[in-house]
Write a structure and sequence with these properties.
Length: 394
């Protein structure tokens, strides 16, 4: 045998040996843990980021010009409607008022004299004892004097109004903030902000919902039945629960065409002043759905491009590779994963509510989902450590 024949024989032996090696399984079973889905009563809240707001808020602007001569409140405290807050230098407005009152008295005296002259000339005119022109002039003078008295009256009212504007009072009960002016500062009419006051009891809480949820909140607003306990509550920024429940006050006029959202306003009593304008909080809306809910572990739900799926286990008969063609056991039962699209609801801790897509009693994969695709052959053999909520049996 020559050298070439020897090499050829050696290669043939290697190829033959390789062909006799056992091939790996084409579709190996994927070990998983299963959980039978059960319906149960679930208490949960829909949560929405929100912000506190005042039902009424106003910037205090001076309506007369002058220097601040008095501040009569403590910043950041509650003030009652009608409380004296600021005083603007009253001297010039008091002097103007006094002058207007004096001018009115002069006008009233002139009116008295004109009335007497007109009465006298009217009497003489009946007997043709006075020139017609003198009588006419007396009547015109009386009319002019009456107009002067009316003008003097208006001047007194204007001066009195300006004098009253020199003192700024609280337009309603609420919390007043930091003053923007100090004693001695000169303020301009309608331009200088003195301070801001806002109502503090009750307090509004605003949050935004998707327009698809609007019918639900409209029904809650119009409902005349007994309110569900803790229907509307709020969590404060430190995650503590505000101790008073709220109610719907206003649903905004229109849906935002760009975002498809609309604002809801709740009202909460605030007797202790815990809520302040501009606070961030979370509105909790009590679950109103009656009947049991399907609750599954969140790790069993797979998200793909904004859609949610779970894998259910399905028993199917397949050919038994170990049985002969004529054997009565040529079919055996195997488990396969079936991908199902679901509609998810509220997340509660590590679990998630499933609105639709699966039914109670179905078995879902809770471990090993990352290795699956629709139609994967699966097994519940003890190859995966059990997890919370998972079951190792079929």
């Amino acid at each position: 045998m020559n050298k070439i024949s020897l090499i050829a024989s050696f290669v043939s032996v290697l190829i033959l040996g390789a062909c006799k090696q056992k091939q790996p399984a084409v579709n190996p079973e994927i070990p998983v843990n299963l959980l039978k889905v059960k319906a149960k009563n679930v208490l949960y809240y829909d949560q929405y980021p929100s912000t506190t707001a005042a039902l009424s808020q106003v910037n205090l602007l001076p309506q007369v010009q002058g220097a601040i001569t008095g501040i009569f409140f403590t910043e950041g405290t509650h003030v009652e409607k009608g409380k004296k807050l600021f005083e603007i230098d009253r001297h010039i407005y008091q002097d103007t008022y006094d002058a207007a009152v004096a001018n009115r008295k002069v006008a009233e005296g002139t009116l008295t004299q004109a009335q007497q002259d007109a009465d006298r000339y009217e009497y003489l005119n009946k007997y043709n004892a006075v020139a017609k022109q003198l009588y006419d002039h007396a009547v015109i003078t009386l009319q002019n004097t009456k107009s002067q008295v009316s003008a003097a009256e208006q001047a007194v009212k204007t001066a009195k109004t300006n004098l009253s504007y020199a003192t700024v009072y609280a337009p309603f009960s609420g919390t007043i903030g930091f003053s923007q002016v100090k004693l001695g500062d000169v303020v301009n009419t309608g331009a200088t902000i003195l301070n801001t006051i806002s109502t503090d009891d009750p307090m509004a809480v605003d949050f935004v919902i998707n327009e698809k949820q609007l019918p639900k909140f409209e029904r809650l607003q119009q409902s005349k039945g007994p309110a569900v306990d803790s229907l509307f509550t709020i969590l404060l920024s430190d995650n503590s629960l505000y101790p008073i429940n709220g109610k719907i006050a206003v649903i905004d006029r229109a849906v935002n065409a760009q975002t498809g959202s609309i604002t809801i306003r709740l009202v909460f009593a605030n007797p202790k002043g815990i809520l302040r304008v501009g606070m961030s909080c979370v509105v909790r809306v009590h679950n109103q759905e009656a009947g049991p809910q399907l609750l599954v572990p969140g790790k069993a739900v797979v998200e793909q491009m904004g859609e949610y799926f779970v894998y259910t286990a399905k028993d199917s008969l397949v050919n038994n590779p170990k049985a002969g063609a004529d054997s009565a056991k040529n079919k055996i039962s195997k488990l396969f994963a079936v991908q199902k699209k679901v509609q998810t609801g509220q997340t509660i801790g590590g679990n998630m509510i499933i609105k639709s897509g699966i039914a109670a009693g179905e078995r879902i994969v809770v471990d090993g989902v990352q290795l699956l695709h629709d139609g994967s052959q699966i097994t519940t053999a003890n190859k995966v450590a059990p997890s919370a909520g998972g079951k190792g049996g079929r």
